[in-house]
Amino acid sequence: MPSALVFFNELSDAPSKAQRELLTLASRFDRATLAVASEVPQSAQDVVSGYGVDKLLVAPGNDDVFIDHALSALAAAVKQSEADVVLVANDNFNREIAARLAVRLDGAVITDAIDVSADLVVTKDELAGSYSAQAKATNGTLFVTVKPNSIEDAPQPQSQGQQLEVQPLDYEAAATPAIRIVATEAKAVSDRPKLTEARVVVAGGRGVNGDFGPVEDLADALAGAVGASRAATDAGWISHDAQIGQTGVTVSPQLFISAGISGAIQQKAGMQTSKCIIAINKDVDAPVFEIADFGIVGDLAKVLPQAAEEIRRR
Ligand code: FAD
């Protein structure tokens, strides 16, 4: 029966939703090891043991914001755990680590996965979710980057209170790092929840016509996150981090409000698993209405402020 290794660059007091999903996936395997490239607080260790993780490998902390430290830590963890499959998040940082190590260790890498079975068959969506493909590695350690919101977070009740074996990672830092930081600058951090973890997402598209104010205001009234279509991020109206879809992030909130977005297949690929979708569009034939639970045909510049006002009044 295959064994799994989950890798996090860091783990705070409360594991994030994406991290809990990876731990849930790992619990399907015969043995599950978690490796973290920095110190792990006791409170996080308690949560991790509730997911049936057998062993925690911890590397010493490091200020390296680039990839060298994490790469060396994961290379050591793969060796120490003898895992058959390595599960990491599907962000740029982890995709790079997975790809580089798969090459270095003569293994295989599959990105954008939405599921991995206990016999190592990886499922991923193709063509913006029109097809689902199953793939299997033919050789070496398998590295899989798993899309957030693909796996239902489910701690293992039988593992609660289970003793977690904690070991230091037998870690060798790169003698001469390939990259050295010459300066850092702190940027303003948003108070809003993380887009991939928010219970409510309000997203705007080309229809906002350059003004994300009403979208942001409704998101704040609902304590939600702000997302966008590619047309809006390409136009420079909002950061590319906010892009939802095939080439952006995948979200699966309780409530998704789509404003001025037509509902192209590549956009739907990133939000169609939302529990409730409300679409606001002035075109009654917009494809987004095909997947919406509730639709409002109207001008977002009028609908969004009215909605925010009504929510704040209650
Ligand atoms: P449009 O399609 O132009 O739609 C704007 C909508 O706003 C229209 O329906 C219009 O009726 C409505 N509207 C206009 N004014 C108002 C108003 N005042 N009030 C209400 N409604 C109004 N797109 C993504 O979003 N994410 C991706 O990850 C992504 N990846 C892609 C990958 C590939 C390989 C390709 C080829 C494309 C990708 N796209 C992606 C682009 C995608 O095909 C669409 O072009 C894009 O989603 C369109 O964005 P939009 O809906 O905001 O704009």
TrEMBL record:
Cofactor(s) named in the record: FAD
A Pfam family hit: ETF_alpha
Keywords: FAD, Flavoprotein
Molecular function terms from GO: electron transfer activity; flavin adenine dinucleotide binding
Biological processes annotated in GO: fatty acid beta-oxidation using acyl-CoA dehydrogenase
Species in which this protein is naturally found: Glutamicibacter mishrai
The protein's name in its UniProt record: Electron transfer flavoprotein subunit alpha/FixB family protein
Function field: The electron transfer flavoprotein serves as a specific electron acceptor for other dehydrogenases. It transfers the electrons to the main respiratory chain via ETF-ubiquinone oxidoreductase (ETF dehydrogenase).
